[in-house]
Amino acid sequence: MRAIRFFGWLVWLLLLGVVVTGCRTVQGAESNKVIPINLDELFPGNLQPLPNPRPPAGAQDKPERWIVFYRFDLTKGKEASEPIGAVVYRPDQGNGPSPINPHALDLPGREYLCEHSCSARLEDVVGDKQKELLIEDKFQGQLVRVSIFTWPKDGGPYEPLGHFWGDGGVTVEKDKVTVLRLLHDRSQLAWRYLYYPWKYPQGHSYYRPDQSLVEPYEAEIVPAYGLPDKPWESRYPEKVIIGFYYQVLAGQKGKNRKDPVGDYMSAEVWESLGKCEKPQCGCPWPRSQIKRVLIKQIGLPEEAHELFLPAGGGGEGSYRVQVPVQVVCESGKRRQWGAPMIWTLEKSGRYGFWKIIGVKPASQGE
Questions:
Q1: Domain ends where: 170, 201, 222?
Q2: Tell me: the pLDDT tens digits for 178-205?
Q3: What pLDDT score does 52 carry?
Q4: CA–CA separation, 219 vs 165, rounded Å?
Q5: Domain containing 243: what range?
Q6: How far apart are CA 15 and CA 4, in angstroms?
Q7: If exposure means fewest CB atoms within 10 Å of the residue's CB, which of 124, 201, 220, 243 is most exposed?
Q8: CATH number for the domain including 353?
Q9: What is the mean pLDDT of residues 207-230?
């Protein structure tokens, strides 16, 4: 970044209106005027500035600022996958070498900001009533990486408040970030991470004092794109078990609600499990007290693990599979790990639906 700082005075002159031919454009935040500058002359040869610098979305307040994105680790023919960094040019009220100075947006560990489609916006997402600078990376229209920065009240440089990535998507809300990271398995599952910022006297941050990211408040395995409308008809037994935990063990209960247990198992099996009113279904409390279930571990059996049971008399036969699971259960304000369990499912014929036929503690073996 030192090479970029040498050009602070040059940027100031160019922003005042010096026209350079054959150049890219910078757009002011309030005036909305386009000022041509030659970015290629401002960056050393190992950095490639991207065209059309602009202020971050939502930048209606003074002082003006401009975001310049650039690619580095340049690889000929692989431009679409080169990492992207950013520099903010803004007035510093005499604190720097020129009236307008560059400020590199650096993350702990020198993490890059983007690698797909990079953009910037201002929004109050960390609870201090001050708009933070968000650098967002989108792939095929989905937010997959976000970095959060703040401009200190006593002046620069920009301070990082958090950096998150998830190939299944990232959602940023006020004082909350949710990340999905795909397991890339056959049943389209993902790890879901929920983060809350630490509260410091000087403000909130998603970084701890040692500049490492805070641990997630929650981590669970979820269907990456939501639970199917009829999870009991899924061809994947692991997704059937997730549906059972969501809809039966932690489902909404009431007189006018259909109990979906019959979609997952026979009445005889349900009775043999004591209707999950005892801890044999994987939670430490009765079903009637469970409000939520988080899947922490689940086996992902491939087709090769399905045991074929031939039928007598030339029938179609059936298939049987075992799915190991461990969950965390919530009851009111209580949250507790359940014992590891092994669920057994069976289906009639190759294209039948999986039905739960039993469960036992993993300590008893397969």
A1: 222
A2: 999 999 889 999 999 999 999 887 789 9
A3: 59
A4: 15
A5: 231-364
A6: 16
A7: 201
A8: 3.10.450
A9: 95
pLDDT at 33: 44
Q: With beta carbons less than 8 A apart as the criterion, state whether 114 and 84 touch.
A: yes
The pTM of this model reads 0.82
Q: 171 forms bridges with which residues in the sheet?
A: 178
Which pLDDT score is estimated for 41?
54
- Indicate if 238 and 213 belong to the same structural domain: no
Residue 115: half-sphere exposure toward Cβ, Cα within 13 Å: 13
For residues 255 and 335, membership in a common domain is answered with yes
Out of 26-35, 94-103, 107-116, 253-262, the most confident range is 107-116
Give strand pairing partners of 133: 122, 149
Domains: count for the chain: 3
Which of 94-98, 151-155, 351-355 tops mean pLDDT?
351-355
Is there a cis peptide before residue 63, judged by omega within 30 degrees of 0? Answer: yes
In a domain, 303, yes or no: yes
Same structural domain for residues 357 and 269? yes
**For residue 83, which amino acid is it?**
P
Residue 112 inside a domain? The answer is no
Question: What average pLDDT does the chain have?
Answer: 81
